[in-house]
Each structure stands twice: as structure tokens, then as C-alpha cells.
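ok so for the tutorial part 2 we go from a plain amino acid sequence to predicted C-alpha cells. step 1 is just haveing the sequence, like this:
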Amino acid sequence: MNTPLSPRIVMEAASSGVAAEKVYEVLSETGCGYDTYAAPAGAAPGVIHAAYLDTAANAFPAPINQPDVPRAVAATFQAGWTGGDITIVGTDARDKTVTEVIADNPGATVDGDVPFKTITAISKELVGAGGKTVTIDTTDKLGLSRLPVGDVWIKADGVSEDPSAIDLADGTFTPTTAPNGAVNFVAFYPGVVE
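step 2 — the prediction. this is what the C-alpha cells look like for a chain of 194 residues:
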């Protein structure tokens, strides 16, 4: 019987010059996940959808921009927002169709939990009367291609670091080094295919 390799051992093998294809092959055989993120942009307001009025129709019009990598999104509500909750529909980092409802909080930014790979629709709950806006933003919470069943180890431009947060239920991690469009990330973790 083969003893499973820990992601940290495999990660160290990868940093010692083992070809990425071989690392991925070993990870797949041992039930570990391995994801790469080529210089994801930093979290920013209005990246997914620009400001949208609470008095407008409930379905957000095009353009709905796509995340650069699978990641959670956020909604920034202007003070006085009366359009209700925001519903986002798309696919997650594991290519499953998902829907997330982000509860409104006028005057605040509310982070979502689902790592969206694609977004196919955005809507609001109500046609409001306040004349205030919401933007749909990106966050620094990145999505994993498998659900993790334990720790996630990451490298930021080849330097090992512990993530600042891991969400096992939604399959996300937030790197300690914030994405900024220049830093590349690799994540290693014990994971299961859904």
C-alpha cells in the first residue's frame, strides 16, 4: 500500500526544480490539489460590474466582466441603498453551477464566499427608490479546483507562506501576500474531487 505524500513534501519537491507536469502527476495520484494563479489582479471595486442604481431594473445589464482567476466577489453598497440583496449566478472553481446571495448592507462592502470562475447573471432583489448604487467587486479570496480537506500551503513568487484565511466549505484561500497583478501563486493541499 502506498503512503500518501503530504502536500508540503510535494511542494518542496516542486521548489527544488521538479517539472510542474511531474508534480501535478504525483499530486493527482496522492489525492492532493495543485493550483496555479498567474499574477491575479488585486481586489478592486467595480471590476465585475460598474455602479448600478437601486431604481433600475432588477437584472444587471451587460457588460458583466469575468474574474481573472476563480475568486470570491463582493458588493459595495452606497449608503441609502434600497435595492435589497444581490444574487450572483455562474460557475465555481470546480465548474459547478452556483448561486450566491449577498445580503445588502447600505454603506458597507460585503464579501461573498463562493469562488466564481464565470459569472452569467447578477440581479438585485427590489426596484428601490433611493437612487443609490452598488458595485460588484473582486476580492483577494482565491478559489481552489478541489475542495480542501485540510491545510493549504502556498507559494507567492516561489516563497512559502501560510494563507491568512482558508474556507474549507467553499474551497477558497486568502493569500497573506495580497494579489496585485504581479505576484504568482501556487497552492498545494489535500483535496477531494466533487
